[in-house]
Amino acid sequence: MKKILMPISTGALLWLTAGAAYADGPVSLKDAVPVVETPTWSGVYFGAGMGFGHNHSKNNYYDDAGQSDSFSSKNEFANGGLVSLLYGIDRQIGDRFVLGVFGDIDLSDITRGSDNDHNALQIDRSWAIGARAGYLVTPDTLFFATAGYTQAHFQNDGWWDIDVADPPHPDTILHGRHSRQFGGYFVGGGIETRLTENFFLRGEVRYADYSRRITNAGTYEGTNYVDAEVPSLLTARASLVYKLGRSEVMNPGSEVTEDQGPKYIGYVGVEGAHHAWDVYSGALAKINGGFYTNGFVLRSEGVIADYNYRTTGNPAATADPTASAPSGSKIDADDRSLDVMLGYQWVFKNWSAIGYLGYEVRDVQLSPDDLNNDVRGTDSGLKVAFELETDDESNDPFYGSFETSYSMAFNSYWAQGRLGYNFQKLFNAESVIFGPEASVLDDDGDVATRVGAFTTLRYHLTPQIPVRLTFDVGNQFVNDSGESRSGGEGIYGGTMVRFDY
After folding, report:
1. How far is residue 86's CA from residue 48's CA, in Å, rounded to a whole number?
2. Degrees (nearest 5) of the Cα angle 385, 390, 393?
3. Which superfamily does CATH assign the domain made up of 253-500 to?
4. Which residue blocks in 313-421 are alpha helix, DSSP H?
5. Residue 68 half-sphere exposure toward CB, CA atoms < 13 A
6. pLDDT (tens digit, 9 = 90+) per residue, 430-439?
7. Between the CA of residue 451 and those of 64, 418, 492, what are the distances in Å?
8. Once rounded to an integer, what is the mean pLDDT over residues 96-111?
């Protein structure tokens, strides 16, 4: 399967209790009462979710010119979507109470203003650590309250600039901080319900209050200027959580069977092309049963990409030299994305298919800025994907796969097809698949097409954990100057390792 989320990795630590009873004289085994493992809310968990954020900030402006408008305090607002990764540990106390600690990370597109006008601000990411306390109204439903510390990253694209002349001119703009971290406390609450023995659905509303930070300060013609922001953030999110049970901790992998198959897939890879490289990682969790059966699948994938290119013409730079790089400039790009998707898998005799629907947040920072490139700043939106693959463990010598996705974040489209021949028991591997591949990436009109070859080798790390190593190489063709994470025209190559468990 394709690049798939920042891999979800955890350790497990559960409180286990045991008891023993002794009777006088020998005890018959047929009289012994079987021990049944009782469901519990105790355990280490991880999960992923999506939601919505609303920012309210108090903007405080001051200058010492002594005019009527030398001080102002204005309300500013921003809205947008977010995706989350969360980790934690809970302990059930008695029959009704649950205590725990947790940490989570959000990638968001909570925006005010307009990127096209060089006057925007985004809250592009945040993190939090905290504790929660809950009450079980039923054995499967928990009401809880949360509190802790959080930080949010504000990305400025001209919103914090101060125009010190009327009319404004590029030479009379005091540019604000490029970005700022705001820290503070949060409180919240929500409800969580058990879907299966290990899967839980959580809904939470959270209010975060951040401390005041100066975003711009400077002097122009003897006058001092200060701009500061005091933000707060209200978020609501729904998350699917997987909690490790006692049997998984004591006997990892014990539930993998030939009929059900593995419950999780994790992978990580790296690839490079002309003036570009990226690292990707992801995880899939089967919600009901294993990957050899029909059912729902939770998927998350993260990508970190760096690339560079040169501008080929920039009319915006002529109008405002401070707003964008001049023609011929080298642009360095940091491209980050994270998605969370829910899908359904259909399994047939020798092939399977999965359809997904979810949400993606993507952040692209250009240095220096390039207003001619539409793939810049932070964008988010719905994402759909489809995957089809033949069974590489069967005796059928022919292999095929097709994957495609579309994201509203920068109108990004991706598709890849592979055809291969499955050589059995080659190079000490259980199977070796080799054949041609082709793919296309369209980032809001910047198209990169690849044609090459791939090989996949399958081994077993343990009797129950198969490992797949994939290598690919070929040539890339682009319709522009390489203004996307795929890079420029020339040779590409990569490798990926995948674990099923």
Report:
1. 6
2. 130
3. monomeric porin ompg (2.40.160.40)
4. 315-319
5. 0
6. 889 999 999 9
7. 63, 10, 9
8. 92
3 state SS of 22: coil
> What is the model's pLDDT at position 5?
38
Chosen CATH of 39-240 out of 2.40.110.10, 1.20.1440.230, 2.40.160.20, 3.30.390.50: 2.40.160.20
267-270 CB contacts, 8 Å cutoff, 24+ apart: 267/1, 267/3, 267/4, 267/7, 267/496, 267/497, 267/498, 267/499, 268/7, 268/496, 268/497, 269/3, 269/470, 269/494, 269/495, 269/496, 269/497, 270/494, 270/495, 270/496
Beta bridge mates, 401: 389, 418
- The domain spans of the chain are 39-240, 253-500
Q: 3-state class of 483 per DSSP?
A: coil
> What are φ and ψ of residue 309, in 5° steps?
-160, 175
Angstrom distances, CA of residue 99 to CA of 132, 136, 202, 242:
6, 11, 15, 17
Model pLDDT for residues 151-191, shown as the tens digit of each residue:
999 988 888 888 877 666 666 788 888 888 999 999 999 99
Instruction: Spell out a b/e string for 449-464, using b for 16 or more CB atoms within 10 Å of the CB, else e.
Output: bbebebebbbeeeeee
DSSP 78-138: EEEEEEEEEEEEEEEETTTEEEEEEEEEEEEEEEEEETTTTEEEEEEEEEEEEEEEEEEEE
Residues in the chain: 501
- Separation CA 99–CA 146 (nearest Å): 10
- The model's pTM: 0.70
Instruction: Report the distance separating Cα 55 and Cα 43, nearest Å.
Output: 33
Write out pLDDT tens, residues 404-452: 999 999 999 999 999 999 887 776 778 899 999 999 999 988 899 999 9
Q: Which letter does DSSP use for residue 463 in this model?
A: T
Q: Which residues are bridge partners to 383 per DSSP?
A: 358, 407
